[in-house]
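Format notes (please read before filing issues)

Several people have asked whether sequences and structure tokens are stored in separate files. They are not. Every record keeps both together, in the order shown below: the sequence lines, then the token lines. Line labels are part of the format and must not be stripped during preprocessing.
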Amino acid sequence: MVIRYKFGLIGATDSHTSLVTAEEENFFGKNSTDEPQEKRAGVQLKKVGEGRLMNWQTSASGLTAVWAHENTRASIFDAMKRKEVYATTGPRISLRFFGGWDYQRSDLNNRPIENVGYSKGTPMGGDLPPRPEAAQAPSFMIAALRDSMGANLDRIQVVKGWLDEKDGSSHEKIYNVAWSDGREIRKDGTLPSVGNTVNVSEATWANSIGEPELTTVWQDPDFKASQKSFYYVRVLEIPTPRWTTYDAKRFGTEIPEGAPETIQERAYSSPIWYQPL
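Then the structure lines:
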């Protein structure tokens, strides 16, 4: 079976306001009639089958990041064509993701990190180079830097997807590969919560937890050379107030029942694919 469709990941607002308002604290709604107002979070947006979609269920999102060689139209479109792009839910998180067969922890000391990234492998959106006979498993070099005006980072995760060799069924697994605050990963691979500094009544938060930068080199412990697979990265921030929490503080209203008080903003890389020869 051949992997027929390979997509890069981008983010957008899906809004109809002609405004660039991807930030939670500056969210102007999905439509021009939905600008910040006292009651907007509790208003019904539309019917969905037998149910309904409330305004508070919409999200302030997102942004597309492009790794272009230069800031020109041609270079940006070239980057999009090779899928060297990633998405965020609003913050300007910087994310690098490279895959190859010989990345080492010492490679993280190189600056700029992309020099060794490109020379030893492929960036997000590409295919892993052919596997050397001596290689046991692919290695991935990942570097994430927080938005300079935003929240610290909680963790980096790698999401692996693969096709079953026997029946072609698809599977996914999430690996925690880097995290902040010296937490210890559990035996089942899960990670304790980073905590939460959000003051809901004041719609504030503090960068007293998390890290401004997370980097790692990770090797797939479950790699099978005969198995078609893909890998992409997910970076999570520490919790921050959601737009409904900002609105409640701004207008002195209650947060609608069921609306989350906080959110963990994130970034998603385009995948890197592995295709057996």
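For reference, the curators noted about this record: The longest helix spans residues 73-81. The helical segments are 73-81, 114-120, 243-251.
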